Amino acid sequence: MRDRGISKRKVLILVVAVLVGMSAWGIYAGQEAQAGISIPHFKCYETTGTPLNEPLRVFDPFHDGPPSPSTGGELVTVKGSHLVCTQVYAKCFPGNSGRCETLPVESSLSAGLNCYKITPSGPPVGETVPVVDQFADQNLTVGTAQFLCVPARISGDGG
Questions:
Q1: Could you tell me the pTM of the whole model?
Q2: Is 88 within 8 Å of 112 (Cβ atoms)?
Q3: How high is the pLDDT of residue 156?
Q4: Contact 124, 143 (CB under 8 A)
Q5: Long-range contacts of 124-131 (CB under 8 A, 24+ apart)
Q6: Distance between the two ends of the chain, CA-based, in angstroms?
Q7: Which pLDDT score, from 0 to 100, does residue 77 have?
Q8: What DSSP string runs through 38-89?
Q9: Which one has a higher pLDDT value, 58 or 25?
Q10: Cβ atoms of 83 and 147 closer than 8 Å
Q11: Among candidates 15, 38, 57, which has minimal Cα distance to 102?
Q12: Chain mean position to CA 1
């Protein structure tokens, strides 16, 4: 069985790496501050793209090991683009609170994510992890990886 202390440490390292990589280190007032994170919110749209069928070995808290092209991590096949995610710069709650929040954004609203459908090589992870966000504190069971999201510049106004 996995040592949860090591697993949590690896998750923390991954979160810090993402925050530093996105130049979004810091805390702002709101639920995200309670969760200890401050990164852009994203709204994702379905897309269609040309299949790439590119093999790739990826390493994350659930599939680790020393980075190597031939061992460790999880070997996946990157298929076509499936989602494009744009930054959300504000959110409003029309219910009883009637409040709006301005959200942190990466330097430009054109910074987003392009999520590729992937075909994983392994079975579902099957590990339960605690997840805290503005909507709920919950324990989620991790299944099989479905997407690989990479930073992308999204041009135009969509209209």
A1: 0.72
A2: no
A3: 61
A4: yes
A5: 125/62, 127/2, 127/7, 127/62, 129/11
A6: 51
A7: 97
A8: ---EEEEEE-------EEEEE-BTTB-SS--SSSSSEEEEEEEEEEEEEEE-
A9: 58
A10: yes
A11: 38
A12: 26
- Work out the mean pLDDT of the chain and round it to a whole number: 80
Mean pLDDT of the 7-13 span: 41
Q: Choose among 31, 47, 38, 43: nearest CA to 15.
A: 38
Residue that has been written with the tokens 């040309």 in this structure = 50
Nearest Cα residue to 37 out of 115, 134, 111: 134
pLDDT at 31 over 50: no
Given 3-state DSSP classes, what are the helix, strand and coil percentages for the chain, each rounded to the nearest 5? 15, 40, 50
* Cβ count within 10 A of residue 11: 14
C-alpha–C-alpha distance, residues 62 and 74, integer Å: 9
Mean pLDDT of 94-106: 87
Q: Which residues pair with 107 in a beta bridge?
A: none
pLDDT at 51 over 50: yes
Calpha distance 78→60 (Å, rounded): 16
